Amino acid sequence: MKIAATASLSTEVIQDYGNFAGWLPRELNRAIVDARTNQVVNGNGSGANMLGLVNVSGILTRSIGSDTPVDCIRKAINDIRVGSSFAKADLILMHPTTHADLTLQKSTTGQYLLDPENPARLGDFNSIFGCRIVTNAYVTAGQAIVCDSQWIYAWTRQALMIEINSYGTDSSGTNLWANNAVNFRAEERVALGVARPSSLCLVSGLPAT
User: What is the pTM of this model?
Assistant: First the structure.
């Protein structure tokens, strides 16, 4: 899919406020990355949308039920291992709030289950059961995507480019030349594929607040 963003500045702003003129391309870059991240997770595959991880047909699912969050995640890792792909989980995506709750899980004696001083015991704050944890605000709070990342493929058809133009009109219909304006356009073309859907497991029912 193509992901693009545009914005215009007057030549006066560019001349008088160099810092702002430098900020705009960085903000366009951030907007592209933000939109791409949302599509990778939640894209529905319709129209120009990417097919995101949670909407891939055939991925495994697990609800927490009566399990603790840690037990549920461990069972999801096992689901992938014994599933039809015989995959081995190495990556878990989750919302920052869900991750925060996971790091606060304690034993009956008040000790944190995830131990930054001894990660081999269960995991540190950035990993659990040997799987790296990556937080992403576009993963729904209360969910986690447990996966074997070797079966997730990404392609860059056009690397992110930022170009400028002071002729013609911008998206609002403003004549750039007549109004002393410069239009900035950021654009990329990317694709995502999951070779083995059963190498992913969508976990639900985890803490969301």
Answer: 0.85
